[in-house]
Amino acid sequence: MLEWIKIPSGNAYIGSSLEEINRAFLFWQDKLLDDRYIPSFKSFLMKEYPQRELSIPAFEISDVLIPNGLYQCYVEERNKSKPESLSNRELGGGVDCPVWGVSYIEAEDFCLWFGEQNGFKVSLPSEVQWEYAARGATKREYPWGDNWEPGYCNSFESGLGATTPVRYFEQGKSLFGLYDMAGNVEEWVSTRYGAYPGGEYIDDDIHYALGEGYQILKGGSFARGGDLCRVARRHGPFPSPEFRFTGFRVVRESRSDTREDEA
Asked: What is the sign of the dihedral through the CA atoms of 214, 219, 222 and 224?
């Protein structure tokens, strides 16, 4: 079951400053899983620039990624195809592990179904909502703070090699108490990639594979390195097997009569 976390209205820092990008580059450049990305790594990070402060209305977001058990209900009721996570036990197919192998279109359709089941509007978070939920009004580099802690999330560095139950990493929770905002599986958001105001559009391998305006993924996964776990990181659905671990969490409009209880 999901718990709804109310995120209050407020100002948030979205993206990264040049100082933060340089710091991330120096820390991660010799830790990347694939040396071929080293020459392009700085440009990847420049997708986050410039940082800006935005005023964000209140909303509610699920504390966890959508788990296999809940997605299974959707598959059965809508007669949809099963994603790989519902059958691949080796990579974490438990009912409490996050669903993965889900396309953006499938995630949107789940939102429609879930909203119909519960009587309220449900959607994927925008990139801005996601970042705000991950670090609040702070400039934290990761959901838990500024220092990289491989034991706080399920990335490649954890050595687990598979998904974990959605409430597994207590120490890695975000400022507002959300789980897996770093690691486990990458998360779809409703925002398509484009340069931030005042920034430069980055032509990288994702652009060449997918074209302009590809859908953004956030948070990183168990199969990839911790550089993707940074809150401000902007990734995309690169068409390669190691990047197929895509899932999502959901938001609903903040309702004053709604408690943070299970739906």
From this structure: positive
Backbone angles phi, psi at 73, to 5 degrees: -60, -45
Which residue type does 205 have?
Answer: D
Query: What single letter denotes the amino acid at residue 94?
Result: G
Coil, helix or strand for 187?
strand
Count the Cβ atoms, other than its own, within 10 Å of residue 203: 10
- Express each pLDDT in 147-205 by its tens digit: 999 999 999 999 999 999 999 999 999 999 999 999 999 999 999 999 999 999 999 88
The one-letter amino acid at 116: E
Is residue 112 packed enough to be buried (19+ CB in 10 Å), middle (13-18) or exposed (0-12)?
middle
The closest of 52, 223, 234, 201 to 126, measured between CA atoms, is: 234
Token pair in block for residue 29: 């450049």
